[in-house]
Amino acid sequence: MSDSTSSINPNGILAGKRILVAGVTMDSSIGFATAKVAQEQGATVLISNFGRALGITRRIAKRLPETPPVIELDVTDEDHLAALPDAVREHVDGLDGVVHSIAYGNPATLLGGNFLDGPWDDVAQAMQVSAYSLKALTQASRPLMASGGSVVGLTFDATVAWPAYDWMGVAKAALESTSRYLARDLGAEGIRVNLVAAGPLRTLAAKAIPGFSDLEDLWGSRAPLGWDNTDQEPTAKAVCALLSDFFPATTGEIVHVDGGFHAMGA
Ligand code: NAP
After folding, report:
1. Which of 42, 144, 180, 232 is at a distance of 20 to 30 A from 63, taking alpha carbons?
2. Residue-range domain boundaries for the chain
């Protein structure tokens, strides 16, 4: 059952915008919270996911203020990427924004303290799904953003080494660099590319990280604004702000939504 649509603001900051949010599985997904805030701010939203979880995504989609179309997109599948423009055009005639809310790294081999033993095949997969895919998704969406647009991805501050995060941290460093090169190459087309660096949030992906609670504990004691690891909305709001017309001259940027943690030395 859909919720009431009364929360949708036709004059919101995303009124008239067409937004694809890639990477929605559960209602705990950052992508779900982003889709919700985007709809509340007046956007027409499409969501995507892949493989076995697609059925879950279709069910979860009904919990949004308006049930959005669900597109199948495995960001490592060249056929899916090539078919994306047609799949999107079945619902809207173009896109003004794309959200990359996707990451994967084998938790058994790449996370939780196994850094020195992480096998290359798994590292390569993490790199492709979590970093290269920002380029792949952006490139696939480019024909849909003929009048420019905004691409926003999600990172976990990759400027330092963390407990437990291991090879996903390396993948995030690659993601951050990828966003800057995309910003360089697509600025002339009016396409902005930015990231939001969120603090730890209890999503499906996060709960699979052995040692994730160590990160949560750090935030609990050090973030000057405090940090609620069950509240995806602050992160979603920042993503929507970057999708909106309120950041017209910002690209290649990383906006921290972490309660101020990144600015503290101890
Ligand atoms: P999530 O709900 O598990 O979302 C991750 C999404 O990536 C899932 O929908 C997953 O699908 C999808 N995905 C994995 N492989 C894919 C592929 N090959 N093609 C397409 N989609 C694929 O977890 P989340 O925490 O919201 O993660 C969203 C983003 O936020 C990620 O980039 C994550 O690193 C980032 N982030 C998270 C935190 C945090 O603490 N949670 C903090 C900072 C940044 P399946 O579920 O079907 O595998």
Report:
1. 144
2. 3-263
Residue with CA at minimum distance from ligand 1 atom 19:
74
Neighbours of 68 (CB within 10 A): 23
Looking from the CA of residue 56, the nearest atom of ligand 1 is 47
Helix (H) or strand (E) holding 98: strand 97-100
User: Does ligand 1 come within 6 angstroms of the Cβ of 102?
Assistant: yes
The finding on whether 75 has its CB within 6 A of some atom of ligand 1 is yes
pLDDT in tens, 84-137: 999 999 999 999 999 999 999 999 999 999 899 999 999 999 999 999 999 999
pTM of the model: 0.97
* Ligand 1 binding pocket includes 203 (Cβ within 6 Å): yes
Structure tokens at 179: 């966003």
